[in-house]
Write a structure and sequence with these properties.
The structure is a homodimer. With about 400 residues, chain A is an alpha/beta fold. Chain A has two domains: about 10-40 and about 295-400, Aspartate Aminotransferase, domain 1 (Alpha-Beta Complex), CATH 3.90.1150.10; about 60-290, 3-Layer(aba) Sandwich (Aspartate Aminotransferase, domain 2). Chain A contains 14 helices and 14 strands. The first copy, chain A, has helices spanning about 5-10, 15-20, 45-55, 60, 70-85, 110-120, 135-145, 160-170, 190-205, 260-275, 280-290, 295-320, 345-355, 385-400, and strands at about 30, 100-105, 125-130, 145-155, 155-160, 175-180, 210, 235-240, 255-260, 325, 335-340, 355-360, 360, 375-380. Chain A has an eight-stranded mixed β-sheet with strand order 2-9-8-7-6-3-4-5, with helices on both faces. Chain A has a four-stranded antiparallel β-sheet with strand order 10-11-14-13. In chain A, strand 6, helix 9 and strand 7 (about 210) form a beta-alpha-beta unit. In chain A, helix 5 packs across helix 11 (about 280-290) and helix 8 (about 160-170) runs parallel beside helix 9. The longest helix of chain A is centred in the C-terminal third of the chain and has 26 residues, at about 295-320. The radius of gyration of chain A is 21 Å and the shape is globular. The termini of chain A are far apart. Chains A and B meet through helix 1, helix 3, helix 4, helix 6 and helix 7 of A and helix 1, helix 3, helix 4, helix 6 and helix 7 of B.
Chain lengths: ~400, ~400
């Protein structure tokens, strides 16, 4: 049987990272390739208590169909935290021009996918940082066969001149996708000045911003920088985040905060995908956020990642030759390494595989999947301290076999 | 702000049923409008035990990211039951031409949506029974802006002549969507002869069949009829079902059984939507299916619905005038009523609302949403026995105010 697949999907590959993670491994393998939250950040004991409580008192609600926009008490709890802590969410009642709504999605990735689905016609351009989150690139491709246009990411955020040129060159673009805080894969954070410039450009070119902020709660160094959404006076920013890094990744709960005209369309599209998000865990997360010390829990997670990131930076400083550059993140899960142009990056990644060290080649995150990259991504949230130390040693050993 | 939405979503409305369910109600309101499984069918006690066990022994696996194709032991347990009980799932190892794979999706609706996403270009035709499941129609529209072509549903399945004409008139169609068993909304079942004819037509016109079977386990009368998938010698049937009606609807777990070339594309597309389905409940369902009396549980559910359906049929026989026709289902959750042409169906539905009885107008399920309908759908799984009796009385009272 010759199957005839749609163009949007025919050439799409599974995420290279997820394929790397599926490759056979043994006890000696060390993976810096994952993007998993550390298992010790899941509040297991409290979740078990709440689950028992829901089964005992609210089981028939929790196991029955729910509404597509999400469990109302969870929506309210998230909206309240986002407004009080981060200044996110406008309301006419508070004197703003429009209302933002908070709706629940099945992980942040669904929020990204729905934004493209409701806004973009097939084949239209979507402006992205380059490199960027592979899950977003694949969502844009598999949903609307998007032309993903990359804007180079510099140390303090996207190249603003290149961004304006991309907007001029691609007048079909309706959407700009950005991860301004602890970017995946680069671990970089866009400066306040650049966030303002990006917002101004979006207004000027009548393009909406999809601000993805899955790591925003994970700052362990430096000063907070306001989100672009908190500057949104005109209702052009769709803000997307999730509970994956602060509750559990496997439960698949994310959220969107956007003008209600936009969330209404996203909810209609979501209804046609999965009807609603797992209701039991929506109820569980609501209880955890409102009846337990959620802020204390988030601070515990920050401490864990502060330690893990410091350890990795220390071990990289100790083991790597000077010519191997890497970013120094202030939060999030990743750092980003850059090889000199004279080194064959593919051979480097292969050499790491040979010593049972997994890293993700930078080309994985390119808007143009055929473009080369001199970079690779390292993750410090998943490996243990011992694995971080041993993995950095292996990385140093590999690096010393190359001559720049 | 004037938002520019994509054509596929701009005119799409939320499901009329879900809007009806959201309308204000009071203790006197009786709803025959839902499609919810009866709450007493959820195995709450056993699920609570298993959940406690998972939190105690496998929490970090259950709360971490999982693989996109689903939890392997659950996939295996479902595939085994589908093959042993229903003859579904081909395998080269068993002498078939191709391998079928079982993959997990976030409810049956996601399976339907993914099938359209991977196969259909924007605006292409999808052949459907008319009436059909509104969730599928909305998925086809919101994902690929499909031209949904309706084929009249007769008492023993789709009108085969009309089906062949639709295939001839719409050569762009790559997909035919059918609910052969206890159809939603009509409660009708396609005969074996027609299933064979449909399969032959799909082969002749090189169209794939999406066989949706969410209610297949819920037969409480009559003889089993083989699924179309069980006849699939060429790998052209995508079989879609779910655990919503036999475990819990709120957990959002469904599955697909289809040739591996097809499931591979569906998994890539699913990965871009929600990465994977809630892992905790995948593990929980696997343990329930393999360590408890799952078959006995399914038989208990059949007994519950046999009773509820019989009660509704008895009360309709007692209360309705002869001119109000209705189907007599052998399984599933719904029956379908037809008004004489001389009666204003919209006025009839409104009169039901006025006596606090909710029913779903038939036009909701039309492939052409602007086409009228003389029908309405009744559900017997959600209301209590008392509500079934009182609701049928109200329906009879309303009917007697109309003169055919």
């Amino acid at each position: 049987m010759e199957y005839r697949f749609a163009a949007r999907i025919a050439n799409l590959k599974p995420s290279a990272i997820r394929e790397i993670l599926k490759a056979p491994s043994d006890a000696e393998t060390i993976s810096f390739a994952a993007g998993n939250p550390a298992a010790e950040t899941f509040p297991v004991k409290e979740m078990a208590q709440i689950a028992a409580d829901i089964f005992a008192t609210e089981a028939t609600t929790a196991l029955q169909y729910g509404v597509s926009d999400g469990y109302a008490p969870l929506r309210a709890a998230i909206a309240e935290r986002q407004y009080n802590v981060w200044g996110i969410g406008k309301s006419v009642a508070r004197g703003d021009k429009f209302n933002d709504e908070c709706v629940i999605v099945s992980g942040g990735n669904q929020g990204i996918e729905l934004a493209a689905k409701i806004l973009c016609e097939e084949g239209e351009s979507i402006i992205c940082e380059n490199p960027t989150f592979i899950g977003a690139l694949n969502a844009f491709r598999s949903t609307v066969n998007a032309n993903t246009v990359g804007v180079p990411l510099l140390d303090d955020g996207p190249d603003i001149e290149a961004l304006e040129k991309a907007l001029q060159d691609h007048p079909d673009a309706k959407l700009m996708y950005l991860i301004p805080t602890f970017q995946n894969p680069a671990g970089l954070t866009t400066s306040l000045e650049k966030r303002r410039a990006i917002y101004a450009l979006a207004l000027k070119y009548n393009v909406m911003i999809l601000e993805d902020n899955p790591y925003g709660e994970l700052r362990f160094a430096g000063e907070e920088i306001p989100t672009i959404k908190s500057m949104d006076t005109e209702g052009i920013v769709i803000y997307c985040s999730s509970l994956s890094k602060i509750m559990s990744a496997g439960i698949r709960i994310g959220f969107i905060i956007a003008p209600e005209a936009v969330t209404a369309k996203m909810v209609v599209a979501k209804q046609s995908e999965d009807v609603h998000t797992n209701l039991f865990f929506q109820m569980l997360c609501h209880k955890y956020m409102t009846q337990y010390d959620f802020q204390g829990h988030v601070e515990d997670i920050r401490n864990i990642y502060r330690h893990k990131c410091s350890l990795m930076l220390q071990e990289l400083d100790k083991n790597l030759p000077k010519w191997l550059k890497f970013t120094r993140p202030e939060g999030g899960l990743f750092l980003w390494c850059t090889l000199p142009d004279s080194i064959d990056a593919t051979a480097f990644v292969r050499a790491c595989m040979a010593v049972k060290l997994r890293i993700v080649p930078g080309a994985t995150f390119n808007c143009d999947p055929s473009a080369p990259s001199q970079c690779f991504r390292l993750n410090y949230s998943t490996p243990s301290d011992e694995q971080i130390i041993e993995g950095c040693k292996r990385l140093g050993d590999v690096a010393r076999t190359f001559q720049p």
